[in-house]
Design goal:
The protein is mostly helical. It has a domain at 1-39. The chain has helices at 3-24, 41-89, and strands at residues 30-31, 37-38.
Length: 90
């Protein structure tokens, strides 16, 4: 991953953390001199775990969509074959 991509992720991550704290109303939150939120190691690990789980979910959901499309395609083929069989017998 290039520097710009990592930097973009860092900025996005920092903004999301700040939004999360603002929404949750974290009392006594600590900020650096640059105004960035300082979080505990546990919070950081939990947020990374959530990010990993979301990524896993997205991958599995895409796989599910592919399988559903394949099932739909096969169902159409079955319907077409059924129709041909019916037409051939009458």
């Amino acid at each position: 991953m290039g520097y710009m991509a990592r930097e973009g992720l860092y900025v996005t991550f920092t903004l999301r953390v700040a939004t999360f704290v603002r929404v949750c109303g974290a009392a006594g939150a600590a900020y650096s001199e640059d105004g960035e939120l300082i979080i505990s190691e546990t919070e950081y690990e939990q947020m990374n775990k959530v990010r990993e789980l979301k990524s896993d979910y997205r991958e599995r959901f895409e796989e599910l969509r592919g399988v559903k499309a394949e099932v739909h395609y096969c169902q159409r083929l079955v319907d077409q074959c059924r129709q041909r069989l019916i037409q051939g017998h009458y």
